[in-house]
Design goal:
Length: about 120
């Protein structure tokens, strides 16, 4: 992150994070994901140097170690949600503990209580 940015300051103060994918259409048919976890500042000069070298090689920008914030993220939970365009049902898979469920659409903007499911996560 940019050196001394507000976002970096927020993470240094409160390390909880939620990363959410962008939904690119009204129906949300491509699905979405959420990753929750905890960020910790990575201040080791060697790790910062390796990161800066990788950025320079891949992006053509040469960040200076100790002039950016680098964070390691410990992932606590991942949620994947997809929507059935025909029914409006919400299919949800969560890790941990590896649970899957469906929320049936009750209106155009509402879903019901979770119902167990076992076919959301596939190994295709």
């Amino acid at each position: 992150m940019m050196w001394q940015s507000t976002k970096a300051g927020d993470l240094l103060r409160d390390p909880r994070i939620l990363v959410h994918s962008v939904i690119t259409n009204r129906e949300g048919t491509e699905g979405e994901f959420k990753v929750r976890g905890t960020a910790s500042a990575e201040t080791d000069p060697g790790i910062q140097r390796r990161y800066a070298d990788a950025v320079a090689k891949n992006l053509g920008w040469n960040p200076r170690p100790a002039r950016f914030h680098l964070f390691a993220v410990d992932i606590d939970e991942v949620t994947v949600i997809r929507y059935d365009p025909a029914t409006g049902d919400q299919h949800v898979a969560r890790w941990p503990p590896g649970s899957e469920f469906i929320r049936r659409a009750t209106s155009a903007t509402s879903v019901g209580e979770p119902e167990p499911a076992t076919d959301i996560i596939t190994t295709a």
